Structure to design on (330 residues):
């Protein structure tokens, strides 16, 4: 791995930038993590401190959105990484190091209730944020549709060699009609156990650069129907009810909204999970990140759970459960 680091030309550029930024070359650099994008993260040890360096190649990633959203969320009291230095042209950021304990690695039967309530409290803080202080895209029908189209193009067609049936587009139209009815607030858009870091008695929020203004239930279903960890329905309902109670007290939901919220939650989850099935396959075929195929079964489980529950989704459910290539994934 060290040989790979040394021959990576961006590593050399990053080291030069760090040397100029810190006015020293007396630091150690190691790989921290990568994600489902072109971004990579490195940990730097300098004197008695550690930081995270984000490497976002400018031909693939625009870090300006990360910077503006980080500053906005910090102003609202959300625990996001402090930006200690930046080079937008080269695509480098020097950030607070939240450590290596992710929510996913920390959560257990014993810690789940406190951690999930902490995560929900942070989500509510983001949703209460004054939206006019930052320019965010709207999570509109076109964006939601384009995301769900990945299910047909990458999951059904590329991965399974199937032709997408008419019921898929009919279901997409139904999902879009349902999402329009929800109140719209700040949406992190990837709010799950791998993008939350446990920092003593609070959570650090990362990977928020794709935030939008969108449906109120999106981030909650991303958290509670996480593609990387499954909880019993009873626990999910318990945490969902905790969210609803607090959201009503904060005037994010009306009592009428509360009565519809479970339906919104289910159908919003279906939108996300159809998209994610496509994304996981695209990561495998296009980007060589085959480990995401291991997460297809749980994601498909959530899809089947939602399609089984609503009459309008019965044709899609029937297609899925009667297609051997799909069910072989379970």
């Amino acid at each position: 791995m060290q040989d790979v680091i040394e021959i990576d030309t961006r590593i050399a550029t990053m080291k030069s930038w760090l040397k100029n930024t810190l006015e020293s070359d007396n630091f150690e650099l190691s790989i921290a993590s990568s994600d489902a994008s072109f971004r990579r993260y490195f940990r730097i040890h300098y004197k008695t401190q550690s930081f995270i360096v984000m490497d976002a190649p400018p031909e693939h990633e625009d870090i300006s959105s990360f910077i503006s959203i980080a500053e906005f969320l910090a102003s609202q009291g959300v625990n996001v990484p402090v930006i200690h230095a930046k080079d937008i042209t080269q695509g480098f950021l020097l950030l607070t190091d939240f450590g290596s304990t992710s929510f996913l690695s920390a959560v257990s039967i014993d810690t789940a209730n406190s951690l999930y309530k902490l995560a929900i409290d942070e989500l509510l803080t983001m949703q209460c944020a004054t939206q006019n202080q930052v320019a965010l895209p709207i999570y509109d029908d076109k964006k939601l549709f384009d995301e769900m189209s990945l299910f047909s193009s990458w999951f059904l067609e590329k991965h399974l060699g199937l032709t997408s049936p008419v019921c898929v587009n009919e279901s997409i139209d139904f999902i879009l009609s349902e999402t329009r009815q929800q109140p719209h607030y700040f949406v992190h858009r990837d709010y799950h156990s791998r993008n939350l870091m446990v920092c003593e008695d609070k959570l650090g929020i990362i990977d928020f650069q794709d935030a939008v203004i969108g449906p109120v239930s999106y981030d909650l279903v991303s958290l509670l129907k996480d593609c990387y960890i499954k909880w019993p329905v009873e626990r999910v309902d318990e945490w969902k009810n905790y969210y609803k109670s607090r959201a009503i007290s904060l005037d994010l939901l009306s009592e009428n909204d509360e009565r519809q919220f479970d339906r919104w939650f289910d159908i919003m989850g279906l939108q996300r999970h159809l998209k994610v099935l496509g994304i996981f396959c695209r990561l495998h075929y296009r980007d060589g990140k085959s480990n995401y195929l291991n997460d297809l079964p749980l994601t498909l489980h959530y899809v089947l759970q939602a399609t089984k529950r609503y009459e309008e989704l019965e044709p899609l459910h029937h297609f899925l459960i009667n297609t051997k290539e799909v069910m072989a994934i379970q």
Summary: Residues 2-96 form a domain with the Phosphorylase Kinase; domain 1 fold (CATH 3.30.200.20).
